[in-house]
Amino acid sequence: MTQLVETTTDLVGIFIVGGGISGVLRAMRQTPEERRRGIKLICRDIGPETRKGLSEGLITAALCDPLGAISDLLVQTMINVAGQDAATAILQRTIPFEIVTPENVRSGR
After folding, report:
1. Which of 11, 25, 47, 98 has the fewest CB atoms within 10 Å distance of its CB?
2. Maximum Cα–Cα distance for the chain, whole Å?
3. pLDDT at 81
């Protein structure tokens, strides 16, 4: 990550999908502030490292899927579909996700 930030002058955003948030944040902390301000970090889900990165202003936003709600709705949808004709069983469900920003973390949300 450090090498990417140092050698890619047109880097303006990073989307962190999986693990490695600790290394990304470590690299960003070592990056000069002027350069760091020009790079937006977006990640999925929120844990202790993400929350810390948000509170430090290193992470622009965390996109959090409500895993419990997704699981509950999936099971309920499968139960609903099981009693229907499979050829006509088309159900669409929408589950909202939470966007956590540095302002959310600082305000105690």
Report:
1. 47
2. 60
3. 79
Quick one: which H or E segment has residue 106? Answer: helix 102-106
Q: Who contacts 43 (Cβ-Cβ below 8 Å, separation ≥6)?
A: 15, 16, 17, 21, 50, 53, 59, 61, 62, 63
Confirm whether 72 is domain-assigned. no
CA torsion angle for 61, 62, 63, 65 (degrees, to 10)?
Answer: -160
- Which tens digit of pLDDT belongs to each residue from 20-32? 899 999 999 999 9
Q: Which two tokens stand for residue 29?
A: 């902390």
Give the pLDDT confidence of 44-80 residue by residue, as tens digits. Answer: 888 899 999 999 999 999 998 888 888 999 898 888 8
